[in-house]
């Protein structure tokens, strides 16, 4: 995919590399004062109709490059998305917007037929799917879908292994010959002391059996009651397999092993959730999967009932806020990328789209509408038509009940708008309740910059030491 250099820089690759560079450039021009710095969002209706389609249509071209001759063949041009090559590399498949997004009315995306992920596809790529020869661009038959297969046993093959004792290894295997280690990395993991996982059986409200997981801190002595950090995420159901979150090679910033390294047990309760949460009291149902799990840990003599924390990221952040508005069982809480007011969430811009880093802000607004009306939340209506559905599931409207000290973490470029944490912070600040708000410039939905991750964990350790020390001493 070759970017049109006459148009603004945008898209997921740009934002992954530059992380908010557009807004930094804009502020530099603001300080200089030599040119206007303005962005305009426009709707259908009135004079906007006469020029719809002149802005925001991402014109791209897909090219085939012959690396021997340097010849470049243009395969397709226009508002193109999602290019993929077939397994044999011969067929290119791409999606084309038709009509282009800026010429389509919002109502065309929000009809009753739009349900689930297909509703998002219509906004991102529209409905035209093309299959062409990857070298010439000539129309081609759709490639057959084939399952990934292991290489023949009589052929050399490369494989990657990840083990705590050896780190990451790239190995060349050859028939009838010893394996050759081509490369090794992450050798440092062999020196880590990791927590030990254990499956915890308990019962959901109504007697339904569930499985949660506990990560003991390194060096845990059986019989000693532990402070517990409860990592929550609605809809997550665990089974007999050890959660991937415990794997030392899990790259996410909120790694449970880091809590364990600080001396805390880490609990992962199963949390059944409705498919269309805004049509239920989803907030009120959060405690049903979590509190019985904690009760089981306490009854078994594992958890210290006076030292239990809640932690959540994204939907887990929303759940963390929801839990502390309904129970005082948690000594402290940390919520990252949390939503708190679903009505304002519906109408607020994606952080990474606000300054054009990720593409058309209007496209993001339609995706947000679909997320609530047709997608994961399933409200089936905007907030002005079903205000109670949004209110009853917004932790902000129960904030007067909060007695738990709370640390809020948010990236300024998050697609969950940072204003969601600002609103909850303001509500607790107004009540003189203990709350800390940590915001990271340039960060998206997860904290990813190395310096920011290190800073965050220093602050997490300080917060837990202040509000729920790992040692009673």
General description of the model:
With 473 residues, this protein is of the alpha/beta class. It has three domains: 12-133, no CATH class; 157-189, no CATH class; 193-341 and 394-467, Alpha/Beta hydrolase fold, catalytic domain (Rossmann fold, 3-Layer(aba) Sandwich). Helices cover 25% and strands 23% of the residues. The protein has 13 helices and 16 strands. Helix 4 packs antiparallel against helix 10 (361-373). The model is unreliable at 48-56 (pLDDT under 50).
Oligomer: single chain
Provide the residue-averaged pLDDT. 88
Shape: globular
Total beta-strand segments: 16
Low-confidence stretches at least 5 residues in length (pLDDT < 50)? 48-56
Provide the domain count: 3
CATH A-level architecture of the largest domain: 3-Layer(aba) Sandwich
- Secondary-structure element order, N to C: HHHEEEEHEEEEEEEHEHEHEHHHHEHEH
Rg, alpha carbons: 25 Å
Strand content: 15-25%
* Termini gap: 59 Å
Strand order of the largest sheet: 9-10-12-11-13-14-15-16
Structural class: alpha/beta
The helical percent reads 10-25%
Fold topology:
Layout: H1 12-18, H2 21-32, H3 48-51, E1 60-65, E2 72-78, E3 80-85, E4 91-96, H4 117-124, E5 128-133, E6 157-163, E7 167-174, E8 177-185, E9 196-203, E10 209-216, E11 226-231, H5 256-261, E12 265-268, H6 287-299, E13 303-313, H7 315-324, E14 332-336, H8 342-346, H9 351-354, H10 361-373, H11 387-392, E15 406-411, H12 419-430, E16 435-440, H13 450-467
Parallel strand pairs: 11-12, 11-13, 13-14, 14-15, 15-16
Antiparallel strand pairs: 1-2, 3-4, 4-5, 6-7, 7-8, 9-10, 10-12
């Amino acid at each position: 995919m070759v970017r049109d250099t006459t148009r603004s820089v945008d898209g997921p690759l740009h934002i992954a590399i530059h992380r908010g560079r557009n807004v930094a450039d804009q502020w530099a021009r603001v300080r200089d004062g030599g040119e206007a710095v303005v962005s305009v969002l426009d709707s259908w209706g009135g004079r906007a109709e006469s020029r719809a389609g002149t802005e925001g249509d991402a014109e791209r071209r897909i090219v085939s490059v012959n690396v021997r001759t340097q010849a470049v063949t243009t395969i397709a041009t226009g508002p193109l998305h999602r290019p993929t090559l077939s397994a044999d590399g011969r067929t290119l498949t791409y999606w084309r917007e038709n009509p282009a997004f800026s010429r389509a009315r919002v109502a065309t995306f929000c009809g009753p037929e739009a349900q689930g992920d297909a509703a998002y596809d219509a906004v991102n790529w529209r409905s035209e799917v093309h299959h062409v020869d990857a070298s010439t661009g000539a129309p081609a038959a759709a490639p057959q879908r084939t399952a990934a297969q292991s290489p023949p046993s009589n052929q050399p093959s490369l494989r990657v292994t990840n083990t705590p004792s050896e780190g990451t290894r790239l190995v060349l295997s050859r028939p009838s010959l010893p394996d050759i280690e081509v490369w090794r990395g992450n050798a440092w993991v062999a020196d880590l002391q990791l927590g030990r996982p254990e499956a915890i059986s308990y019962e959901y409200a109504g007697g339904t059996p569930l499985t949660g997981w506990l990560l003991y801190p390194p060096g845990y002595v059986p019989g000693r009651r532990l402070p517990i950090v409860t990592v929550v995420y609605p809809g997550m159901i665990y089974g007999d397999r050890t959660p991937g979150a415990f794997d030392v090679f899990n790259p996410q910033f909120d790694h449970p092993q880091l809590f364990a390294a600080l001396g805390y047990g880490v609990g992962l309760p199963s949390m059944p959730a409705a498919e269309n949460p805004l049509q239920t009291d989803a907030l009120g149902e959060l405690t049903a999967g979590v509190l019985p799990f904690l009760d089981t840990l306490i009854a078994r003599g594992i958890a210290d009932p006076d030292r239990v924390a809640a932690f959540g990221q994204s939907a887990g952040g929303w759940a963390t806020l929801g839990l502390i508005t309904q129970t005082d069982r948690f000594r402290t809480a940390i919520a990252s990328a949390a939503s708190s007011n679903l009505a304002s969430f519906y109408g607020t811009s994606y952080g990474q789209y606000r300054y054009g880093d990720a593409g058309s802000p209007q496209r993001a607004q339609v995706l947000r509408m679909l997320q609530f009306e047709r997608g994961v939340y399933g409200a089936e209506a905007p907030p002005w038509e079903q205000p109670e559905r949004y209110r009853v599931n917004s932790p902000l409207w129960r904030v007067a009940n909060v007695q738990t000290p709370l640390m809020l973490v948010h990236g300024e470029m998050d697609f969950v708008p940072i204003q969601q944490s600002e609103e909850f912070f303001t509500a607790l600040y107004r009540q003189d309740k203990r709350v800390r708000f940590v915001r990271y410039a340039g960060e998206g939905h997860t904290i990813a910059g190395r310096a920011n991750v290190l800073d965050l964990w220093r602050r997490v350790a300080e917060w837990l030491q202040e509000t729920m020390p790992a040692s009673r001493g």
